[in-house]
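Re-run with default settings, no changes from the original entry. Doing this only to confirm the output is reproducible before filing.
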Amino acid sequence: MKKTLLVILGVFFFATACFAQNYYALVEVLIKNDSGLAFLMNTVTRTSDQRSCGEILSPINQLKDKYQVRTGCLNGPEWDNLFGDVFANKPTSAIYISYKDLNGYQTRINTKVLGGVNSVHSGMPVDPPDKEIVAWANTMITALEKGGIKNARIIYPRKGK
């Protein structure tokens, strides 16, 4: 009887591990400041199911009146591969912020500046200068702490970008 129970538990654990999928609630907000500078703020939250992913994105619709916003619930092995290092808090090519939100979901935020019309990267997202991105990250950490997030931290880029 014990062996049968152990086999059933083993099969259940293996099947759950093999078929578990991550869903990623992706939010991209285009923000333009008074000086005409445009930047993208990207937030990715990892959930275990599509329903939770949708619940995270639902309040974002309120931003659509004020900003250009794109959202999506993404899942599949290609997204697990793409976001694997970020959700393991490994350094990437750019600074990002890592935290667990108030609902217990792992969340990551980064920002990019859109290249100006006279730039080689016109209209394309590029990493802001290091001084500016560190200032942005520190400001975001402070804002997150005011909102009740106590575990936010900056993940600095790998050396040699």
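The mean pLDDT is 82. The helical segments are 2-19, 50-57, 77-87, 130-146.
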